[in-house]
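ESCALATION

Customer reports they have been waiting on this structure for their group meeting. Please prioritize. Original submission:
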Amino acid sequence: MKRRPRAAVLSLAMFTVLISGAGTAAATGPSVATAGPEVYSQITSADIADPSAVLPAGSDEFGTLQTVEGAIGWFRAREGSTEHDGYCERAVRLAWDRSTHHASAIAHWRSSDGARHTGTNPPRGAFVFWNISSFGHVGLSDGNGGVWATSVNGRIGHVSRGYFANYLGWKPGNSN
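Update from on-call: job pushed to the front of the queue and completed.
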């Protein structure tokens, strides 16, 4: 996944300085390219919520936000890994590149973070929940009756939604 939001902010800030003429004392003064920290801007949560507030219209930088395919690709790239076994909530958070943290899958399910649905056909990329322990379990729907999840024989894997017992339902992917 390409990530360049800081570069986009830097480029936009440099463009703004060039257009406005700010930061240049005279034609022989320091160039904008050597202005350094003066053109840096910290990206805030508001910028992430509305990238158009920072990025110009038509920018390819809008693709830097995580997508359904990116989230599923995160799991696919780690298939067979034991790194996140027992940490399903963390795995789906990392896959979706979420800023919202939940203590467990069951805490996520019970939270106001996204509408709960009990239907058995979760859309592609949806969080899918099971009540298999006091912590619950969560994976990502493939949209075709399967899920990507941790704890598939102790590893990240792709299985049918029925692989885990006590299905609770689903919430829209990246609902924060």
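Sent to customer with the following note: The beta strands are 127-130, 137-141, 146-152, 155-160, 167-171.
Escalation resolved.
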